[in-house]
């Protein structure tokens, strides 16, 4: 199999894995962490920006295929299911430096770069949800609460929990399976 074909096949597998984790019940309503983020960030760190963006876009599009879209309006859906999922691939910006730090055995740098990848992707994604929360979800705010504060509380919590669950998987994997990130 050619390298390109291998990367595309992996993108499809990781997008499907992310989507299957998105099917877990939202036990804490909109505060629930996004478990699908875990495989998507692992894949982006392994294969880089272009492959990560593709996998992120596929993950977003799979929500339409499986009727898992919360629809309020077309602009809301474009922001929250196209852009917000696409940018999960931004973790791939750190793929090459991560591989270099691994090759040189720079443990602290490896963990910093992997963390930066996860933080960047999750922060940008939840900025989109925060923005959408203000623009489209303000009707759901408790009485007397400002839309900005409501969206911030919901999306900062969900984003923070998403980062937490991602790092809980990412850190041990960097130790026990570094080859995964080196693309072997
Ligand atoms: C305040 C608020 N409530 C709900 C949403 C919608 N939202 C939030 C996070 C993630 C997703 C994508 C599906 O997991 C959605 C649609 C919001 N942005 N803000």
From TrEMBL:
Gene: thiT
Domain of life: Bacteria
Membrane as UniProt keyword: yes
GO molecular function terms noted in the UniProt entry: thiamine transmembrane transporter activity
The keyword Membrane is assigned to this record: yes
A GO cellular component entry from the record: plasma membrane
TM stretches of this protein: 28-45, 52-72, 78-98, 110-128, 148-174
Keywords carried by this UniProt record: Membrane, Transmembrane, Transmembrane helix
Alphabetized Pfam families for the sequence: Thia_YuaJ
Stated name of the protein: Energy-coupled thiamine transporter ThiT
């Amino acid at each position: 199999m050619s390298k390109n074909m291998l990367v595309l096949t992996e993108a499809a597998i990781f997008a499907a894995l992310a989507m299957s984790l998105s099917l877990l019940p939202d036990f804490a309503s909109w505060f629930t962490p996004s478990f699908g983020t875990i495989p998507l960030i692992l894949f982006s760190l392994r294969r880089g920006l272009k492959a990560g963006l593709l996998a992120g876009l596929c993950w977003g599009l799979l929500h339409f295929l499986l009727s898992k879209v919360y629809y309020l309006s077309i602009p809301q859906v474009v922001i929250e299911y196209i852009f917000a999922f696409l940018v999960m691939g931004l973790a791939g910006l750190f793929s090459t430096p991560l591989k270099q730090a691994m090759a040189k055995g720079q443990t602290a740098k490896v963990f910093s770069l992997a963390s930066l990848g996860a933080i960047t992707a999750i922060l940008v994604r939840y900025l989109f949800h925060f923005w959408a929360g203000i623009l489209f979800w303000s009707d759901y705010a408790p009485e007397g609460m400002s839309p900005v504060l409501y969206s911030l509380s919901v999306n900062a919590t969900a984003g923070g929990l998403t980062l937490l669950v991602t790092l809980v998987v990412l850190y041990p994997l960097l130790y026990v399976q570094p080859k995964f990130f080196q693309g072997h």
